[in-house]
Amino acid sequence: MTINPDVPHRRGSGNGRPPAFNIPGVVLAVILLLAAVHLGRTQLIGPVMDDRLIADLAFIPACYSQPCEVLFGRPNGALLWSPLSHALLHGDWTHFGLNAIWLLAFGSPVARRIGSVRFLGFVVGGALAGAAAFFLLNPTLMEPVIGASGVVSALMGGACRFAFSGLQRRAATSATSVRLSLGQALSDRTILFFILVFFATNLLTGTALGGYVSGGAQIAWEAHIGGFLFGFLAFALFDRPPVRPASILTPPA
Questions:
Q1: Which CA distances in Å does 16 have to 25, 59, 106, 113, 174?
Q2: Average pLDDT score over residue span 214-227
Q3: Residue 21 CB neighbours (<10 A)
Q4: Which of 36, 159, 175, 177 would be a feasible disulfide site paired with 168, CB 3.0-4.6 Å?
């Protein structure tokens, strides 16, 4: 997720394991939707209309305390849909490509485990959580915030609950691995290391050094952390009930 500065203020492979490139349809559909939106913005509409689109769909924290319908010409309904619609927009193809790669990597195991409908609900929750966290830390910012990084971060947080530990990696598929409790996840060294790296990397982007590393682009690290916390803490609400092995009936002697 970035702040746009240009706008005014299951099938197996035969061995019991899924094939390496078995992309869930819902994940592919989300990536194609994001690609179609960015392609339309860059190829089908002019810069004036694109600025209008960003102003109407981007998340602008200060609009909840100031009359943005006057400053930006935004419709009043943007206050309702922008916490979600901002995730459809990206600053450039690099921004989209990075999010698409991470969405593919972390969205695929999550989608295989919880199914398409729950996955879409999880994606929506990640976008809203990212916007909420950004607003809490930047309530007066009059800059459009765009990108699906909050969603990607939520998928990372959710994957931590079932896909990273040694016990989980030994499971046949992501659908049969055990969902760890919060305490178990936080006591697993692999998961804890991943979480520490995630938070350190995102907090680094909030410093001047982070701006230098990102080429001067403003990165909405607050939304990343909000999405991750949502995914990590709320994953159990979206997870399917554990699959119980079928009982073995022993015929009477």
A1: 20, 44, 21, 16, 12
A2: 79
A3: 7
A4: 177
Give the span between the Cα atoms of 155 and 100, in whole angstroms.
Answer: 12
CA–CA distance, 154 with 122 (Å, rounded to integer): 8
The helix (H) or strand (E) run that includes residue 234 is helix 221-238
**Taking a C-beta distance cutoff of 8 angstroms, is the pair 125, 155 a contact?**
no
Lookup: tokens for 94:
């690099």
Per-position DSSP letters for 82-139, written without gaps between them: HHHHGGG--SSHHHHHHHHHHHHHHHHHHHHHH-HHHHHHHHHHHHHHHHHHHHHH-T
Q: Which amino acid is at 46?
A: G
Contact partners, residue 238, CB within 8 Å, separation at least 6? 114, 118, 119, 121, 122, 125, 158
Instruction: Tell me the two tokens of residue 129.
Output: 């959580």
174 neighbors 113 (Cβ within 8 angstroms): yes
CB 2 within 8 A of CB 147: yes
Q: Which fold has domain 2-8+23-238?
A: Rhomboid-like fold (1.20.1540)
**141/158 Cα distance (integer angstroms):** 29
pLDDT in tens, 87-113: 999 999 999 999 999 999 999 999 999
Question: Which residue is listed with tokens 């109407």?
Answer: 56
Q: Does an H or E element contain 179, and which? A: none
**Domain boundary assignment for the chain:** 2-8+23-238
pLDDT tens figures, 63-72: 988 877 666 6
